[in-house]
Design goal:
The protein is α/β, with parallel strands linked by helices. The chain has 34 helices and 24 strands.
């Protein structure tokens, strides 16, 4: 490579980023090996900012009287944030941290473009005046404390170079810079004046390349096509170097990683552990987005009186706690209990109290022991500590909780933990800028530091490099694909810093200040790409959701190609592979083992209901105990509301006993009874604390309104006497032990009985009692318990929009909404007695099927039944339907 012929042993090569430095160092070593050399001087090749830091470190260590401290970017952010918090404008700032970052960026631009803080244009806007005041405070504080921020480091070096206190480098070569700031130019010019030789070079001085443009449907299509193209290239020649350039890669990293992993995984497997695959994605993630660190921070945050259930659930399922493997089933069951109890937030103090009904001590003793030790240690941390002391405390607390878990960490997790330890070391340096902190404040700064630390675990060298647009500039490749070349994003819309007057930024041609500046910058960037590889593709999307897009004007001069002109690898998604693999072996097993005679069958009436709804559903839920994980609600669940209504009506009819008493009460007495019943019912049913008294008051009011309307309906009925309320009955039906709870039995004037079942749903139909697969079999079962006296069944529909008493009777009973049996067209038989016999036969058949293991997938109402079911992943009904479609399709065409 011609570039390396210029490099001498004393040469220093400067680049705009670490990736280009690492790539050039690798190329330089390969160049030396091509010359058959076995040893050569190490090349000094550094990012520009790292070079400045090294110059300062070398100077500071040699001068004993130097007491100035160079600030890290994280320390600078904390200082800016503190200045903003203490300023009068802080009350008007919605996001202090984000504004502090803008102020830090504005300060850096002022320094790089050598603009004094006294510049008159700063006073033209209110934002400019505010920034000017903040910047003066920052400058004054740095001078007082003898700090140097990263933006001022070059100016400090210039000052010491002029005094000849720092030796000038003999030879500097700059590679990959699209633009140099006035500050950088001043430093390099001074080096030249002091005897340095400064050159600007390119990796490819005059490389000719073939460049094309291509249009694809959308962003995901671009990523997928790029990955398939790259895979085809390395399948043809594994040593080929390929660059895949993606703008805003950091925001879509997970999508890119998933698509590339899908495409590059071997045909018979799929993995998201991309270290085993021949591509590398450069963009890292904030440390807080890695599970092991996220859990560590959540553990340290277990200091609040109440903790949201979703947070606590994450901890229960996390492998990064002590005894996670040992207690994983117990912890999963405990989470299920909390969800079933409709708990939306928990208190550690209550969970560690053995007197509480739901507690960790009896359910997960190992976790309870660790949490108890954690809480005890926390109780000792009452005094503020220095930021130098807090990391030790944090690690002690995490150790008490068994973090990072009992299993061995994989390579990525180990690297992330090492980065966490490095973060704690950096956190210790905050004691130079922050006073002693309380636990909560210390944890706040720790979380902030972790969120700003971008990290990517190291991975092996690969042929395919997935890069951001700035990282890829000047990197050499054999092939290059640059996506996102749309008219709306390349060049991008100007993004001037809002704290600096736009007039000032435009006058000095600062970055992102104007459309003209963005156009010039992107044009230079495009030329760099065109010299980076022998074959280049620039792609753009045709749409972004509903917005139509066009190619950037900067690539319109390139010849256009179609996707069919490229060699791309064949691709079948993992989901499709799994779907098609089902044809390898097909077993239609619809009969489960029969229920043995001595087995106790739990479920009661649910056995008949589920077997009628779908035999597989009955088998899965009642014999495999397959249940969905409940999601807690902030208020009452529908089933809790139903139970409250049942309880309130039980209280009311226990007091009233019959319709005559109901009719004899005046409105005030009835209202008192309704209020008493509603209040007692809610107190009886609610087993958990609901902190909002207003919410409970609204529930009581809603319930009272509903009960008042229902009792008004009851007053229109002929005489009846309530002889049973929430009556429990136990009996055996065809070897199935059944426990029935009959909501209510009314005795009519002739001594006959009407069974009423309260329902809170809106869409009710008595048709569900009939047919060979009745969806509401409990009502026929109620009737069969007492064939002699029961002459009618009815739903008591208590819905705010629809209150009614609907049902059937053996003969007319003077209630218009209860039809006589002879008027029911969908009844199976002619007489009431025949219907009773038919119900007995039907329910016997359903119970026999359940006991014999009939578990075929047969939802009674097709997709409507499946819509309300949570067992799709278990029964795979969608694949079942697809098989039926394929069979019918093949039959027709054959």
């Amino acid at each position: 490579m011609e570039l390396f012929k210029k490099i001498l042993p004393y040469t220093t090569v400067l680049t705009p980023n670490r990736r280009l430095s690492a790539t050039l160092l690798k190329k330089y070593d390969a160049y030396q090996r091509e010359l058959n050399r076995t040893a050569w001087p190490t090349l000094t090749i550094l990012p520009f900012t790292t070079w400045l830091q090294q110059l300062w470190t070398s100077f500071a260590t040699q001068e004993i009287e130097i007491t100035t401290i160079a600030l890290t970017p994280q320390q600078e952010h904390v200082i800016w944030e503190k200045i903003l918090q203490d300023s009068p404008e802080s009350e008007r700032l919605l996001q202090v941290s984000a504004t502090a970052e803008l102020a830090k960026s504005a300060w850096s631009m002022m320094k790089q473009w050598q603009v004094p803080l006294s510049h008159p244009l700063l006073t033209l806007t209110d934002d400019g005046k505010s920034f000017q005041q903040w910047a003066f405070q920052f400058e004054s504080l740095c001078q007082k404390q003898q700090w140097i921020d990263s933006a001022s480091l070059a100016d400090t070096l210039i000052e010491n170079l002029q005094k000849k206190l720092i030796p000038t480098p003999p030879h500097l070569i700059l590679i990959g810079f699209t633009e140099l700031s006035p500050q950088q130019q001043a430093l390099l010019t001074l080096c030249e004046q002091l005897g340095s030789k400064v050159e600007i070079a390119h990796v490819h001085a005059s490389q000719s390349s073939s460049a094309f443009r291509i249009s694809l449907t959308d962003e995901e299509d671009e990523i997928r096509s790029m990955a398939r193209w790259a895979k085809a290239l390395i399948e043809h020649k594994s040593t080929t170097t390929i660059g895949c350039v993606i703008p805003h890669l950091e925001t879509i990293r997970d999508t890119v990683s998933r698509i590339f992993a899908e495409i590059f995984s071997p045909p018979d497997s799929f993995t998201l552990h991309t270290t085993a695959l021949p591509f590398n994605i450069s963009a890292g993630k904030p440390l807080t987005q890695y599970s092991i660190i996220h859990i560590a921070l959540e553990l340290l945050n277990l200091t609040h009186e109440t903790i949201p259930l979703d947070v606590f659930s994450q901890l229960l399922y996390s492998p990064f706690l002590g005894e996670a493997e040992q207690e994983r089933i117990k912890r999963a069951n405990f989470d299920n209990r909390l969800r079933h109890a409709n708990v939306t937030s928990i208190s550690l103090a209550k969970l560690l109290n053995p007197q509480e009904k739901i507690n960790l001590i009896s359910s997960c003793p190992a976790l309870a022991k660790r949490l108890h030790a954690f809480m005890l240690k926390l109780s000792e941390l009452k005094k503020p500590l220095s930021t130098h002391q807090w990391p030790t405390v944090f690690m002690d607390l995490l150790t008490l909780l068994g973090w990072p878990g009992e299993r061995s960490l994989n390579s990525h997790e180990y690297q992330i933990v090492q980065q966490w330890l490095a973060l704690l070391s950096e956190y210790r340096t905050f004691d130079t800028i922050l006073p002693d902190q309380s636990y909560q404040n210390a944890l706040f700064y720790l979380h902030r530091l972790a969120a700003k630390m971008i990290y990517q675990p190291s991975s092996p060298e690969t042929s395919v490099q997935v890069l951001g647009i700035l990282e890829a500039a000047e990197l050499p490749f054999d092939y290059l694909w640059v996506m996102g070349m749309n008219d709306t994003t390349f060049p991008p819309v100007p993004r001037p810093n809002p704290l600096l007057p736009q007039r000032l930024q435009k006058l000095l041609r600062m970055p992102h200040a104007t459309a003209e500046k963005e156009l010039i910058y992107c044009s230079h960037l495009l030329e760099q790409f065109k010299q980076s590889a022998n074959y280049i593709i620039f792609s753009h999307s045709l749409k972004n959701q509903d917005c139509l897009l066009r190619a950037s004007s900067l690539i319109m001069d390139l010849p256009e190609i179609k996707i069919t002109d490229l060699t791309i690898s064949q691709f079948i998604s993992p989901a499709e592979r799994l779907f098609h693999s089902r044809k390898i072996e097909s077993i239609q097993d619809e009969i489960a083992p029969p229920v043995s005679i001595d087995t106790f069958l739990a479920g009661g009436t649910a056995i008949f209901k589920q077997q009628a709804t779908c035999p597989f559903k009955a088998f899965a839920e009642l014999r495999l105990y397959a249940k969905h994980l409940e999601a807690p609600l902030l208020g009452l669940r529908p089933e809790e509301r139903g139970t409250i209504i049942h309880k309130a009506l039980e209280i009311i009819w226990k007091e009233l006993n019959d319709s005559d008493t109901l009719n004899s009460l005046d409105n005030q007495a009835l209202d008192r009874l309704i209020h008493q019943a509603a209040t007692l019912a809610i107190e009886y049913v609610i087993k958990k604390e609901i902190s909002s008294l207003r919410y409970l008051a609204l529930e009581i009011q809603r319930l009272k309104t509903l009960l008042r309307k229902w009792l008004a309906l009851e007053k229109t009925r002929p005489f009846f006497k309530v002889i049973a309320r929430e009556q429990e009955m136990k009996f055996t039906f065809n070897n199935i032990n059944i426990k029935l709870r009959i909501d209510r039995i009314d005795e009519l004037s002739d001594g006959s009985q009407l069974i009423i079942d309260y329902k809170t749903g809106k869409n009710l139909s008595i048709q569900d009692w009939f047919g060979d697969r009745p969806l509401e079999p409990q009502m026929p079962l109620y009737c069969l318990v007492n064939k002699t006296h029961t002459i009618g069944l009815a739903f008591g529909q208590l819905h705010p929009d629809q209150l009614n008493l609907i049902g059937i009777s053996k003969y007319p009973i003077d209630i218009s909404t209860i039809k006589t049996f002879s008027d029911i067209r969908y009844a199976n038989d002619v007489t009431w007695e025949q219907q009773l016999t038919h119900w007995e036969t039907t329910l016997t058949k359903l119970s026999n099927e359940f006991q014999q293991g009939y578990a075929y997938i047969d939802p009674k109402e097709g997709s409507e039944t499946c819509r309300l079911c949570h067992l799709h992943a278990l029964c795979r009904i969608h694949e079942y339907n697809q098989d039926e479609y394929n069979h019918e399709h093949n039959t027709i065409h054959s």
